[in-house]
Amino acid sequence: MTSLGQLPLDSDTASSLLPETVMLVGLIAIVLIPNLGDAKFRIPLTSVRVPVLLGGSRFNMTNDPRMPNRISNITFLVAFLSSLVLISESPREVGGVLMADGFSRIFSTMFLGALLLVSVATTHRIPAKTKAPIPEDSDSKATVDRKISVLIDNRRQVDFYILLIMVGLGMSMMTMATNLFMMIVCIELASLSTYVLVAFHKESPAGGEAGAKYFIVGSVASAIGIYGMSLLYLWSGSLDLDVLRESWQAMDGVDPFAAFGIGMMLVAFGFKVSAAPFHLAAPDAYSGAASPISGLLATASKAMGFVALFRVLVIITVPEGAEALWMVALGIFAVVTMTWGNLAALTSENPKRMLAYSSVAHAGYMLAAVAVVGSGISSTEESVVILTAVTFHLAVLVLFKLGAFLVITHLETEGKGHSIEHLHGLGNRDPMIAGSMFLFVLSLAGVPPLSGFLSKLLMINGIVSTSASTGSSDTSDIATWAESVDPLFWLAAAIVLNSALSLFYYLRIGLVMFFEEPASTKPLKAAPSLRMAIFACAILTLLCGVGPVSEWLLDLVNGAIDSFMHQV
């Protein structure tokens, strides 16, 4: 066995890092393949010319502007399948700072699935054309603008997919991080690429403004998190999660360095999950970015934030049989977040902003469940149930939340999607796409028997089963019992009430799609790969609600969370 630093280069390590290796190979391929040509190098003092393949006249097949998209689709598909296979593999430490286990692979599979859908959707959102016409002097201004737009789309294919693969690498690596510094580096690798992707449509003023806001706010949040990490290092002398946990458990009282360090990191991760009041840049980013990227922010980026929260809050700071320092604050943040998100969504006329605020509300639901884990009344088994519910919700959120953004992506292919009016009469124009969209919003609302209902039910059940038993058993009336029960019980009530509130704006989407007259009866574009992605999300939204598929997914998630909690 050879080694590079602390990283062993053996077959076990290679198999553990197979998804990341696939993405690295895809990254190299996406840079090299479009530049292949017939260039030759002449050996000095001879007339012999050796082909070097890079440069010269590019080969027609590899010079196809659609090639980067094809490489990206293949890369994410292979990485997704390899990550899915590795979920059941036994835990394996890599290099002292990474742990490849079921927990990390559940989330990396989630991320790679979302990125695969985004890559497929971008085939039509940022299309590449092999025979892009050159503007001519006789062309009208509209024709010139259209031709230039096509040329720009062709030119930036490589840039876009390089950034997308970098996001995948950062997200996948951070799921395995057992060192706080490694985790932050991987999060920033994914985040910096995401900032550029938000502003990728430079021809749109909204895109540039959204990207600038998201970058500024995200950079400030990251700086606060890094400062918090430095305080934890000053306090403990190490950034390994296990060492930090041991130091926290051995702490007599509350050390200011430790408390402020954790608090600052919560601010950074609060931005990643779009928790109020750290969510203010999210609606602008979602509405200004291309819809596939908005869907990525609402699903994979949010899940990345929750992985960080699990690692920091559950591993480091949850004491055995006692209330965590952050529990009350997180519970308050949860209620404020879900209520703020739903109220703001009620008044939104832009479907993407509506879905953005909906994403804020869903963050609140999950934060409420995480708060119960730190309550001190939750046993290890109950904590496993709760975190399984949160992780399952994050997994199915990729289906119906990203699916809804893919429908908006379909509208964006014809220059629409930024107003609720563009959904008017969609049921007449394209019943299948409208039906899928209605399915997605019903699942977001938590309507049975869809996957969104099951995931919310599991979270509510986890909170209720943990807290309801704290109520007095010898009371004869509900009012007395309600006074005696642990306040965490009311987090479940807050989720139910906010879910009922969300029905108003979700059902509004169905109302305008099926009961309003469309401005145009022209059918939507064919966009076969985008349609395939939408229908796949719709079918899986149904299958993950009730039936063997949901049971299989829950078993996978439960096994991963169980191993994660027993490492604590």
Overview of the structural elements:
With about 575 residues, the chain is an all-alpha fold. The chain has a domain of about 180 residues. Helices cover about 70% and strands about 5% of the residues. The protein is built from 22 helices and 6 strands. Strands 1-2 form a two-stranded antiparallel sheet. Strands 3-4 form a two-stranded antiparallel sheet. Strands 5-6 form a two-stranded antiparallel ribbon. Helix 17 runs parallel beside helix 21. The two termini are about 30 Å apart.
Structural class: mainly alpha
Task: Kindly report the spatial arrangement of strands forming the biggest sheet.
Answer: 1-2
Classify the beta-strand content into a percent band. Answer: under 5%
Alpha-carbon Rg, integer: 25 Å
Low-pLDDT segments, ≥5 res: 1-5
Strand count = 6
Layout of SSEs?
Layout: E1 3-4, E2 7-8, H1 11-16, H2 18-32, E3 40-42, E4 49-51, H3 67-86, E5 92-94, E6 98-100, H4 102-125, H5 141-155, H6 157-176, H7 180-198, H8 205-236, H9 241-250, H10 256-273, H11 282-288, H12 291-317, H13 327-346, H14 351-373, H15 380-412, H16 426-429, H17 431-445, H18 451-467, H19 478-484, H20 489-515, H21 528-543, H22 548-565
Antiparallel strand pairs: 1-2, 3-4, 5-6
Helix pairs in contact: 2-3, 2-6, 3-4, 3-6, 4-6, 4-12, 4-15, 4-22, 6-7, 7-8, 7-12, 8-10, 8-11, 9-12, 10-12, 11-12, 11-14, 12-14, 12-15, 13-14, 13-20, 14-15, 14-18, 14-20, 15-17, 15-18, 15-21, 15-22, 17-20, 17-21, 18-20
